[in-house]
Amino acid sequence: MINLTLLGATGSIGKSTLAVVDLHPDQFNVFAISAHTNWQQMLELCKKYQPSFVVMTDENAAAQLTQQIQDKTVVLVGAKALDEIASHTQTDYVMAAIVGAAGMSSALAAAQAGKRIMLANKESLVLAGNIFMQAVKDNQAELVPVDSEHSAIFQCLQGGRSGLKKIQLTASGGPFLHTPLEKLVNVTPDQACAHPNWSMGRKISIDSATMMNKGLEVIEAHYLFNLSSEKIDVVMHPQSIIHSSVYFEDGSTLSQLGNPDMRSVISYAMSYPNRIASGVPSLDLTQNSPLEFYTPDFEKFSCLRLAFEALKQSGSSMGTMNAANEVAVDSFLKGRISFLDISTVIEKTLNEAEHFYPSTLSEVIHNDQSARAIADKIIKSYA
């Protein structure tokens, strides 16, 4: 029986993870779960899975849950408690599915404790890639990617990296793949969140619409597979059937295909190097529309361009870009800036922020906070 700690239990990845657990109750025990504010849903999860620990990072939510809970589950509160359950001696696998910079510390704690980290929090690598990967190496942790694209690359490379030429991440293009740039001026949050293939939270849905999500994945791929930006390619593929490809010097290309459902990726991360049922139907290409591929428009999707530039600049630029993006997306969702302002805020923040090479987690956090302050100042100037 594998003890699973699920960080971000109420999000889309968390729900899909529990759906896989439900198919294999004899293999996985939900040892600990976490959420931010949704104590009502966490109460239901506690009743069903009876975890040993539950963490609410919001104090009021923790107080509400503590009053309602009747089983032996211990309720913990705060960000430090996430580190505690991620590194707990009884934790075997950690699903790192907290969105944004908030998930970095707990994912790093899992790496430092030598756990299997099923990484759905790409910001851990975007902000602190060198530190994170060194922790994985030093503590003999296992790192299995949960993004569909990185899982595809990971699977395609199981036969080895000999003759590897490049990797190619696919991108659906989100809801605005064929929308002209000039028509994006008045886009609403609901329109930007209407992803044609994937059901995701609002923040990551906006990132998909701007292509920043793919930019973050490019940076994540750089660290996961130790590749320069010149060996990482992006292609638009609206059907989301081919999840990514690997190109070799002999002209061969390996691709991983499947229906667009995160349960496939999650089940692979939970069972690697074996495979278990995920609940996802097998792919039938005869029942799918023709597969399409397009070159990315870096003018329309300028967030993708900025991500490649930040990766090439390296150092603090990637963390600065991520912080500015989180602030800008939150402001867009709250109606403070327009959709096209998101990339403008990011670029201005990158130009204004100090560039350096962080070597400690405290420096990473300091850069994140500084970049957020700069981005917020820029946004306030829009008012």
Give me a quick take on this structure.
This protein is an alpha/beta fold and about 375 residues long. Helix content is about 45%, strand content about 15%. α6 (about 125-140) runs parallel beside α10 and α14 (about 340-350) packs across α15 (about 360-380).
Description:
This protein has 383 residues and is an alpha/beta fold. It has helices at residues 12-23, 39-49, 59-68, 79-86, 104-112, 123-138, 148-156, 189-192, 202-210, 212-225, 262-271, 302-313, 317-333, 341-352, 361-380; strands at 2-7, 28-35, 53-56, 74-77, 93-96, 116-119, 142-145, 164-171, 232-236, 242-248, 253-257. Helix 6 runs parallel beside helix 10 (212-225). The longest helix has 20 residues, at 361-380. It is globular and about 55 Å long. The chain starts with a strand and ends with a helix. The mean pLDDT is 94.
Write the layout of secondary structure elements.
Layout: E1 2-7, H1 12-23, E2 28-35, H2 39-49, E3 53-56, H3 59-68, E4 74-77, H4 79-86, E5 93-96, H5 104-112, E6 116-119, H6 123-138, E7 142-145, H7 148-156, E8 164-171, H8 189-192, H9 202-210, H10 212-225, E9 232-236, E10 242-248, E11 253-257, H11 262-271, H12 302-313, H13 317-333, H14 341-352, H15 361-380
Parallel strand pairs: 1-2, 1-5, 2-3, 3-4, 5-6, 6-7, 8-9
Antiparallel strand pairs: 8-10, 10-11
Helix pairs in contact: 1-11, 2-3, 4-5, 5-6, 6-10, 6-13, 9-13, 10-12, 12-14, 13-14, 13-15, 14-15
